[in-house]
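Give me structure tokens for this 473-residue protein.
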Amino acid sequence: MKRAKELRIFSIAFLVVVASIAHGALTVINPGFEEPGEGKISDDFSRIPGWSQDVTADSGVEDAGAYTGLYRGFGMTTDSEIYQLLDEPIIEGATYYLKFYGMDTWSASSIVAEFYYLTNPSDPTSRSVIASQSFPVSGEWTEYILVFVPAGGQSYLGQNLGIQFSGLADGTGWYGLDEISVERIQPEYAKYPDPYDGEIDVLTDRILNWEPGIYAASHNVYFGDDQNAVENATTSSSEYKGSHDVNYWDPDPELAFVDATYYWRVDEIGTSEVWKGDVWEFTVQGHEKLETFESYLASGAKAMYSTWLDGWATHTGGAVVSPETGVVHAGKQSMELCYFNYNRDWSYWSVVKADVSKFGYPTDWTANDLSILKLWFCGDPRNEVNSKDRMYIALEDGSSNRAVVQYSGDANDIKLASWQEWQIPFDDFAGVDMTNVSKIYIGIGEEGNNSSFGGMGAVYFDDIRLYPLYEEQ
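Here you go.
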């Protein structure tokens, strides 16, 4: 299904080209406090590589409760700052991100994170703070980010950048630190990619765009499905997609309608400089999401049974549906279908049905060469199953042509407490116009059976999707 292409365009400012300086992650020594790996150190910061502290009573590293790895840093709120001077100059107009994981380990209320520089480069105690923020902490590890953009005309420009941490408490407390990193994004480089780096479920009609570097006169775009090839590509490589004077590029028809990951890079071209960009990635949604079961409530206007009409509502089958949050394939909830195939007043089979238009999806299921219906189900070992209790899917088109496809696997699969994939080629729905699908049915039992009763139980369904034939199943 084609959608209108989204496009976000950033303005470009043309300035005099300046020399390029390294861009991206900066080196933080011992960022996770894994060294020296000698057990708990609480009174001698000189033993901890990379980090310093002027006054230490009970701060250091310990091999307990780390966010990642074996060790974490910890600080007493009445001790001085834990700090490290980086081997990186402060650059005007760059954006610096100090990212860290922090927590309260005992009675700490906040962690104060700061950027600094030395007013006297030979004196580590001459730290002058240039950006500071206090972050409230809890007993759970949480990621925090301090952002700093150096202004022009400041005395600290060109000086090495430092980072430091301290804690606040009502009295004495302790705080934890782990996984500390610093990233610098410079104005000369392409940045803020759309799709964002690592984005998933990107549609194939997406236009790639970015915020350009401030000195860029043009943009060289590199694109492919091999990260190393894109990283090392030149204008002679097949990954090179040309020079562009706008900050966007349409990858169509490069994007195949399959679940695949793609990589791209934008080099900003000035009058005499080239600023090589980072490699970004995104994953294409190689399928259409027909029904995710995420939007329903247990009752009211958004009740699941208002869309998925069950036997309780229609008295046409012994099925009852409700949202389920504990047994989920993806997202936050699935559909629980309880079947009762022994009710003589109704029937000996259970079925629910939904009008496809309520999913917000077109009735034409053949766009993008779609040809396979796929869904996931999960059973329960307590389910009662006999030969009549076989799952089925039925589709009906706008002309009331209807076709039923029974589950071809073992009927006892609905007793397995694990998610199982069920895929059905469109061709199996013989006689149904797949360009005009109006209703979908999910049932358990033999339709029309009014003579022999079956069992009872619950089966969970989630993520009904449509795939093209060439999607790797």
